[in-house]
């Protein structure tokens, strides 16, 4: 099983980034997917999740209206479009797969994890 995130980087406040998570080794279309983040000195927190059939999404309050999660089951890939980024969004971002339906942002309930991609929002 592999989950490989990409798309992180350094961006100014108000800027945008699109994260991708390419997966292999499991039946991607059967798994709800989630994005999580962990800032230095803080616990990992759930940001957003999406159901396996793309008919349900959930966002943590601090990212509602700014982040959009999506998936392409034909490409075994989940995305996180992040707009109007703020310094407090700075963290390592991880994608994860869980069989909890419709989806979950509880980290302990996820089975497979990527290695993370760094997002830094700073002027």
Fold and architecture overview:
This protein has strands at 2-6, 9-11, 17-24, 33-38, 45-50, 57-59, 67-72, 77-82, 91-97, 112-113, 117-121. The strands form 2 sheets. Strands 2, 4, 5, 6, 9, 10 and 11 form a 7-stranded mixed sheet that branches. It has a 4-stranded antiparallel sheet with strand order 1-3-8-7, with no helix packed on it. The model has no long low-confidence stretch (mean pLDDT 97). It is mainly β and 123 residues long. 36% of the residues are buried. It starts with a strand and ends with a strand. The radius of gyration is 13 Å and the shape is globular.
Features:
0% helix, 11 strands, 123 residues, single chain, mainly beta, globular, 7-stranded mixed beta sheet
Number of helices: 0
Structural class: mainly beta
Which runs of at least 5 residues are low in confidence (pLDDT < 50)?
none
The profile of the biggest β sheet is: 7 strands, mixed
The count of DSSP E runs of length 2 or more, i.e. the number of strands, is 11
Rg: 13 Å
- Overall morphology: globular
- Which whole number gives the mean pLDDT? 97
**Approximate strand percentage:** over 45%
**What order do the helices and strands follow?**
EEEEEEEEEEE
Query: What gap, in angstroms, lies between the N and C termini?
Result: 37 Å
Helix fraction, binned, reads under 10%
Oligomer: single chain
């Amino acid at each position: 099983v592999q989950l490989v995130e990409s798309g992180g980087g350094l961006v100014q406040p108000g800027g945008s980034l699109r994260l991708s998570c390419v997966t292999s080794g499991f039946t991607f279309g059967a798994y709800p997917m989630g994005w999580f983040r962990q800032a230095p000195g803080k616990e990992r927190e759930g940001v957003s999740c999406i159901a396996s059939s793309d008919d349900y999404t959930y966002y943590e309050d601090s990212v509602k209206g700014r982040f959009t999660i999506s998936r392409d089951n034909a490409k075994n890939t989940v995305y996180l479009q992040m707009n109007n980024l703020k310094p407090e969004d700075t963290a390592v971002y991880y994608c994860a797969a869980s069989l909890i339906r419709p989806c979950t942002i509880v980290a302990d309930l996820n089975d497979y994890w990527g290695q993370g991609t760094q997002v830094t929002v700073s002027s």
